[in-house]
Amino acid sequence: MQLPPAVHARLAAGPGAAEPLPVERDPAAGAAPFRFAARLVRFPREHEFFEEGDVQRHLYLQDVLTGVAGVPERPRVPEFTCQMAGCCQVFDTLEDYEHHYHTLHRNVCSFCKRAFPSGHLLDIHILEWHDSLFQVLSERQDMYQCLVEGCTEKFKTSKDRKDHLVRHHLYPGDFRFDKPKKAKGPASPVAAMQVPTEAVGDDGDTMEVCSDHMTPPPEPVGEKRTSRHRIPSTICFGQGASRGFKSTKNKNKHQ
Amino acid sequence: MLSPRQGLLRPVGCGVEELRRRRREREAALRRARREQQLVSKRLLRDDTPEEAEGGSVASILGEAEIQQFLWLAQRGTEEKEREGALVSLRRGLQHPETQQTFIRLEGSMRTLVGLLTSNHALLQLEAARCLHELSHSEQSEVAEACLPATSYLLTYLAGHSSDLIELCLYTLGNLIVESEAGRRQLLPQGIVPALASCIQSPHLPVLEALGYALSQLLQAKEAPKKIIPSVLASSIPQHMLRLLQPGPKLNPGVAVEFAWCLHYIICSQVNNALLITHGAVSTLGLLLLYLAGSVQSPEDAGLELFLLQKHPSLLPEGLWLLNNLTANSPSICTSLLSLDLIKPLLQLLPVSNVVSVLVLTVLCNVAEKGPAYCWHLWPGPLLSSLLDTLALSDTDVVGQSLELLQLLFLYRPEAAQAFLQQSGLQALKRHEEEAQLQDRVLALQQTALHR
């Protein structure tokens, strides 16, 4: 159907509402036995009016099959090696490298080399494990922050925090990213924090950053510290993204 | 719970008639489910291309021993490729409901899977997440609910930076959310709303689409108006949603669809729409609608929606409802309808269906009730003969609304009553003299017409 000429003219002339015609109502309008009154109509959620739309929505959900991340679809590039010190993992797709980097190198503690799933957890770890001022302050005030984003509660001990996580936030009692600090102190070269040793059937999956590396993980003391925690400028992850998404925290924590 | 999986895995080469028949069946099943408030649909993320070099393109069902073997290899294999391969095999096996059942019944299996999910091995982590995703998509409640121990980890990873993993976690969470109220009761205290509010700032489109999906499932829940929507509205999520619905070259359809549904669930729950309006929801949505209709003009030109409607008849009820709410209290929009000659196109929509007729007539009543200046433009014109046509119908709602419009027209434009008589209007009215819901109004109109 063609647009009426008046619409064309209006579009050509540009925006601007027409001067409204004067409104003048007669009390007989809509009077009994008639009943019309102009009114806004609202439908509640479950109303039948939305049935058709909901049906279409659900057909869409069932039919849309999104390609899974990784596997043959991704373009292959000539093999390259991870540039992080001590890591010799090899990749042939950028996406695999991106995932590897973000998992193992992105949020790494410069003191003990543990990798964390997020900047938030890394920050808490550094504060609680490697900041001597923290220890002092925590004797006088509640310093152990809740791990859940959006919760501002703080606690006297890590056990109190754990109880809060379990009772208030329904976290599992053995949440793997909440290991209490070992008595030995910050330079302790123990196994990775990721896997609890009491877990059934779990291996102590060690902190090897390079899986081909046959020697055990190096001691923190003698090793060159990796102080860069941002993505190296030579790396740019495709998909038009800026280098990962912006983290509001500065993770350049040196000793 | 609903289960048309055939749509995803149907064999290629099915006849068109067969496909249509299945689609109608699926639609009917969805309608039934909606009426019973049991509407549950999940999204699946899966690589559809045939697997290479693994021997055979169809995954077979795995037994208990095989599952145990794969899990053991994944955990303790010495070769990296061997460990990944084991998980890949497990994942493919988990496409089958039987394997899923066996898996969840195997003691320690979920615990091991979660261990792999949280391990230090990037690709194992991703494969474990894919296994969880397959399980979350199951139609069998016990299978999906077996995934609930993993939710705190799925949420933790949303704050990470691997977009592949985040996307998977979001789709998995979305499936678990819609699965059961138990899942939602756990996810809310675990902080799903703040987690989504952070994640929605991601620049990655696949992540955003996945997030929109998960959020839409959360907002669709029965208890959402009381327990979920208030905290979503209090977060930064609404502003981000509206940002992602801005029309223009950056608008991504997959992402926009999800967030449009999110907005719908929020708005029709009527928790705090005023807040959305202050964030600019009305102008964003208006501009979006116009953008989709192929126009870039200002939102005051209400009539342009009509052209969107003509291209998409299935949207007629929703579009006309919108037009009703726009015209009910707005003299300027009613004036626009008249000055843009949009009455005729509206009248052309009358024959579509009874529901559409009533809506069209209601919009016209909104215009007519504003008084003589408006009715002056309604007659002479095609309106009267269209009304005579509607009087020939038998649907009481349609006829009733026509009578209301006639009363307004006769009141504010007496000459129209005269013309009505000349076009055998009285005979048209007579048809409905016996109808209980209509007779009083029919009588009143007969008298008005005769005494002018």
From TrEMBL, chain A:
<protein>
    <submittedName>
        <fullName>Zinc finger protein 511</fullName>
    </submittedName>
</protein>
<dbReference type="InterPro" id="IPR013087">
    <property type="entry name" value="Znf_C2H2_type"/>
</dbReference>
<feature type="domain" description="C2H2-type">
    <location>
        <begin position="82"/>
        <end position="105"/>
    </location>
</feature>
<feature type="compositionally biased region" description="Basic residues">
    <location>
        <begin position="246"/>
        <end position="255"/>
    </location>
</feature>
<feature type="domain" description="C2H2-type">
    <location>
        <begin position="109"/>
        <end position="130"/>
    </location>
</feature>
<dbReference type="InterPro" id="IPR039258">
    <property type="entry name" value="ZNF511"/>
</dbReference>
<feature type="region of interest" description="Disordered">
    <location>
        <begin position="214"/>
        <end position="255"/>
    </location>
</feature>
